């Protein structure tokens, strides 16, 4: 199957500048292609993952992907999808984010070539910029691009207005230096991508064989945007979203969405995905498709060891055997549950439940204990006179409290 046909089957093609031309090119040649990423933060989230996994599919087919880290473009701000100007980051903050994102991308996509557009943009003086590149851009055409036209009513600075020139310059530079012929981006980047094609054709001639491809905005079956949780974005940085939380995000996907997500976020074959689709219909209670999705994406982003930890935490929480977790695993498993700090000293069980906000009154705490509703570090306790020594569990850092079957609380020892 041609790589473009595969992308279409997976639902990863929104727009292409010349689909037939691109199919012919990828049939006859191994090509170089790229996707850019601006350093607006110090970690990617799963919204970034899809275009770069698309580049990985090209790599698996023998092609050569580049990631452009936007040390230059990120310092001025992309107007796309924004109703107002982005806050300007300091150059120190931009560099910090560049370093963090580069390390993260190199870990997840080690076969890609990483470049920073600051390296060529910083060398261009203002007069050279205006004479060599600004002259090739028609303001009327730029105004008609959706990324700009959507901002005209509220206003757009000249700085953000020039963003598409800088991004176009990236494509031209990569074409000249590395023979990069395809730029991949999100659906909201179409105007920037086509501006790059126009610049290359003006600077290098109409015979230059270059293409643009965008990936559709990913929506859930209910029409809402995919990738957000009640806690915010799902990050690829394990310190921001633990591997266990990451695993659970994928495992908890709806039956209506899981096959679409398997197509887009895994490298499973059509036959494998079709088999899982059948199981969603015949045995939905087993959640085999969701489990496979969680396994594949967690392994791809965090590695097999992190997957094993996530699966262990999942199993332990299901069984209630909390004492089998390590201190680090407790930190992952209970990140986000109600928590409270308590002193590093012995504390009566009733007082512990009050201090950890498990119960509001001592009367209710005693009732919960006597009724067998309280477990401390996995052990059911029914004696209201017991004292709990924080030093004896999880390296003296945590006490895990469970009330009832599923309600967890975390006491953090200080």
Automatic annotation (TrEMBL):
Motif 'HIGH' region per UniProt: ranges: 39-48
Any one cellular-component term (Gene Ontology): cytosol
Residue positions of motif 'KMSKS' region: 225-229
Binding site for ATP: 228
EC number: 6.1.1.1
Gene3D superfamilies the UniProt entry points to: HUPs, RNA-binding S4 domain, Tyrosyl-Transfer RNA Synthetase
Subcellular location(s) per record: Cytoplasm
Binding-site residues for L-tyrosine, renumbered to this chain: 34, 163, 167
InterPro entries, per the entry: aa-tRNA-synth_I_CS, aa-tRNA-synth_Ic, Rossmann-like_a/b/a_fold, S4_RNA-bd, S4_RNA-bd_sf, SYY-like_C, Tyr-tRNA-ligase, Tyr-tRNA-ligase_bac-type
Keywords assigned: Aminoacyl-tRNA synthetase, ATP-binding, Cytoplasm, Ligase, Nucleotide-binding, Protein biosynthesis, RNA-binding
Its biological purpose: Catalyzes the attachment of tyrosine to tRNA(Tyr) in a two-step reaction: tyrosine is first activated by ATP to form Tyr-AMP and then transferred to the acceptor end of tRNA(Tyr).
Quaternary organization: Homodimer.
Name of the molecule in the record: Tyrosine--tRNA ligase
